[in-house]
Amino acid sequence: MPLDSDSPLRPALKRPVLRTLRIGCMPLTDAAPLLVAEELGLFDSVGLRVTLSLEASWAAIRDKLAFGALDAAHLLAPLPLALAAGLDGVQAKLTVAAGIGANGNTITLSRALAQALGRFAPPLAAGAFARLVRQRAAAGEKALILAVAFPYSSDHYLLRHWLAAGGLDPDRDLRLVTVPPPMMAQRLQDGLIDGFCAGEPWGSQAAALGLGTIALSSGDIWPNHPEKVLAFDAGYAAQDPESAIACTAALIAAARWLEEPANQAAAVRILQRRAFPGFAAPTIAAAFDGTAQGLPQAAPLRFRTATLPRREQAAWFLRQMRRWGHVPAELANSAALAPWRPDIWRAAATRLREVEPPIASRPPADLPGTA
Amino acid sequence: MPRQGSMPAVPWHDPCLGQAMSDMERRTTTLRVLLVDSDGERAAAVTQGLAMAGCTVVAVSAGIDDLVQRVRDTGAEVIVCRLDDPSRDELEGMRALHRDEPRPVVLFTEKAVPEQIEAALEAGVAAYVVEGMAPARVRPVMEVAIRRFRAHRKLQQELAAARNDLAERKLVDRAKALLMRRDRLSEPEAYRRLRRMAMDGRKRLGVVAASLLQENRAS
PANTHER family per the record (chain A) (predicted)? Predict the structure, then answer.
């Protein structure tokens, strides 16, 4: 598994004390850059000592980061906005040094719901889904329940946007609930939810178990949308900027490695061993192949082009949070978006001679009602 | 009462202290707890630990789809959940998506966690019980959590009420302006007209103002 030989990782320069950097991540395919960086020794090669922990819930990652039990984390892109606003009683200053992954979520529906929709080719049109919801309401059937991984997640805001684009009110016409991705398939089976939007490999796993049908991918809603970020506790990044830059460099190197088709099989093995024991390799590989249930995705999971954290892209999530009344009106854009620090990414990228990725596609147009 | 040796380790488990509390005391002061735990075996151990600390576990819930109903049925005063339990995100979702805040949530950890996590107490909504905490401290933490939760909710309600008042006043002002313009009334006349409409219809002033504005827009 050779690294790019023309751009070796330079060891970090001076650092006060070599203490262990504690990073948390969730068992999702887009945690791959962190898992790979550890497996390939990329953290070692930038002179970092890292412990990478797989966490059980986003709430636990958030709290550990906010209260000092973690130094950095694989985080949902809208979560630093929620923490800047102090939503749900938890406030924290974070430093977003890199983006982790673009695209990569699927909207997976129960077999029964997919059958009720009749034959469709993914991506399922929002209008077709909305028609079914209205028919059910007219027939007096109970509202559909769709699950997302966490309130402040791209899955949630992209799903809401898709539903609203179909003319539905996600707060009135359906019931949205939160379920951790590893429990989604079980909840589908138990009939407690009718569908979910979550990161891979959980949609492909539900499909492989015969419990769900993938109706569309998040990249169908906003092609190449930012998905996760690498966020540091702001105090840590301010105190030890060298470590933050070095860690970002290791992440960029891992993203490059992941994008090489020749490394894909090895990446799948790493994920299987570290995060998804018991999963068939093809289930994990689907996201890397850019397929969902065997069909090619228009905007599949990408790593290398997503590492630059873009404030203007995060602003789309903030607008959605405002639109749905999830953040107080008095929260200033500048304060909410302050954690995004492309300068740290640039410092790391320079060391690797990584060129700035082209501007990703524009976010979908705001729907009526967005401030 | 089970002996300590027969139980898995529970952070605040201390049978002596539990026994020190008379049955009478426990009946009158016991806290009703809803435990959310996705692991049945551990839930049993935690239930016993909580009993030692003067709490009664009135329900154990793994999937929390019916949590609001459960709280209502059992009269639980506080929800207890492990920091690393996968159900945490469902609890969060309920709060954020549905504004359902049935009860304060107290989290506990089995692994050592830095002291800062106790700062979560300051957050007002959740509280942490940290590993190794003596049973004598479990109750106070829960009581603090409940107090803060109530204070927090009161504040939220006051804020919402203030926002409503402001919104209502704005509506009334706009409806007044409409009447002044349309029916060439003076400001006091317009206000009196609105008030009469509200009294006749037995509706709030704001509601009357809103429907007046809507009718005007429709016509």
Answer: ALIPHATIC SULFONATES-BINDING PROTEIN-RELATED, BLL4572 PROTEIN
Domain count, chain A: 2
Q: Categorise residue B99: left if φ over 0, alpha if ψ from -120 to 50, beta otherwise.
A: left
The ipTM (two decimal places) reads: 0.73
Chain position carrying tokens 């105090």: A235
- Give per-residue pLDDT as tens, B136-159: 667 777 777 777 777 777 777 787
β-strand pairing of B105-108 with B126-129:
parallel
**Could you tell me if A148 lies within 8 Å of chain B, comparing CB atoms?**
yes
Instruction: For residue A277, tell me if it sits in a domain.
Output: yes
| Shared-domain flag, residues A200 and A124 | yes
- Give Cα separations from B141 to A87, B50, B105 (angstroms): 22, 12, 11
Determine contact: A54 vs chain B, CB below 8 A: no
Domain assignment of residue A231, yes or no: yes
Three-class SS of residue B216?
helix
- Domain check: are B175 and B150 in the same one? no
Mutate to test the interface with A, among B85, B88, B99, B107 (most CBs of A within 10 A): B88
d(CA B42, CA B157): 37
Going A46 to A51 to A56 to A59, the CA torsion angle's sign is: negative
- Provide the residue range defining the domain that includes B207: 159-218
Q: Average the pLDDT over B131-139 and give the result.
A: 60
Tell me: the pLDDT tens digits for A236-248?
999 999 999 999 9
Claim to verify: residue A239 and residue A273 sit in the same structural domain? yes
Regarding whether B52 and B126 lie in a shared domain, the answer is yes
- A17 near A49, Cβ under 8 Å? no
Place of tokens 């889904």: A129
Q: Could you tell me which residues come within 8 angstroms of residue A312 by beta carbon, excluding any fewer than 6 positions away?
A: none
